[in-house]
Amino acid sequence: MTTLAMKSELLHHLNRLPAAMQCQVLQFTRALEKTVHAGIPGSTLTSFAGCIPLDDLNVMSQAVEEGCERVDLHEW
After folding, report:
1. Domain membership flag for residue 54
2. How far is the C-alpha of 63 from the C-alpha of 56, rounded, in Å?
3. What is the pLDDT at residue 40?
4. Integer distance in angstroms from the first to the last C-alpha of the chain?
5. Distances (CA, A) of 74 to 12, 46, 71
6. CA torsion angle for 18, 24, 26, 4 (degrees, to 10)?
7. Between these two residues, 24 and 34, which has the higher pLDDT value?
8. Confidence of residue 69 (pLDDT cuts 50, 70, 90)
């Protein structure tokens, strides 16, 4: 579906909704808009490569292996 066709269909359905529901759609689209992130190209992050000391990386790796692989069935 093309962008134009999608916009047209959205407007078609939006116009059929009561004003209160149109307001909900507007609030939803505003919330969605806030979640869109442009991102950062990986090439801009290469300057950080090697910044974390090897000992710290080993501690983090060990913590992940010890703590993140378990499932506590009674947690919730």
Report:
1. no
2. 11
3. 83
4. 42
5. 48, 41, 9
6. -60
7. 24
8. low
CA pair distance 28, 16, nearest whole angstrom: 17
Tell me which residue has tokens 């790796």. 61
Distance CA 25, CA 14 (A): 8
In a domain, 71, yes or no: no
Query: Which residue blocks in the chain are alpha helix, DSSP H?
Result: 3-16, 19-35, 54-67
- Mean pLDDT of the region 16-40: 91
Query: Cα–Cα–Cα angle for 17, 23, 26, nearest 5°?
Result: 105
User: Smallest Cα–Cα separation from 26: which of 8, 36, 38, 11?
Assistant: 11
Q: How many domains does the structure of the chain reveal?
A: 1
pTM, 2 dp = 0.47
